[in-house]
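Posting for a labmate who doesn't have an account.
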Amino acid sequence: MKKFLLGSVATAIFALSGSTMAANFVAGKDYTVVANPGKVQVPGKIEVREFFWYGCPHCYRLEPHMQAWLRKIPKDVNFVRTPAAMNPVWEQGARGYYVSEALGVRKKTHLPLFHAIHANGQQIFDQNSQAKFFVKYGVPEAKFNSMFNSFAITSKVAQAKQLAQQYQLSGVPAVVVNGKYVVQGEDAKVTQVISYLVEKERKAK
C-alpha cells in the first residue's frame, strides 16, 4: 500500500508537471513573500529549504509529495531540511535530527522515524526515546547522548531557530524557496508551487 501511494503521488505530479509551469500562482494566496530574504547555503544554486517537525501530522502527510519531488530535483536546486526548533519539544527533535545527520544515519532513519510516530503511535520526542530509537540503526546510546547537547549540535539548533524567526514562520511544514518565498500546506499543490517558484527564480537570474 505504501509503495502504491508513493507511486500514485509521483504519477500525479508527473501528469501535472506541464500545467504547473503554466499555472499562475499568486503571492499572498499560494505563497508568501519573505520580508527579510535570507542567504542561500550554496551560492549559485536555487535553494529549497523545508522546515518540519517529526511529530507534525501535516509534515507527515506532505512527506510523500516531497519524496516524489526530490526524485526529480533539478541540478541547479539545492535542497535543505531544517528541523524546526520553535519550542522546547520541537528543539528536542531538532537535536536528534542533527545528531543523526552528524553520525551519518539520517537517510536510514528519516522516514522510519516519521512512520514510527504517526503510523505506530510511538512517542519519540525526548532525548531518551530518541536515543533508544537510533540504537536500532547502529547508533550506541552513549554516543547519541554525548552528542545531543554538544556545542556543535547546539549551534545548528540555534541557526535553525534564527532562520525560522527570519522567515517569520508560525508553524510547519513550511518550505522556503531561495530565501524569498514561503510555501505551506500538506498536499501535492505544495510541490507544484515550489516548482513554479524555482522556475521563477531561474528566469530571474
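Reply:
Got it, the C-alpha cells are right above this. The first strand starts at residue 32 and ends at 33.
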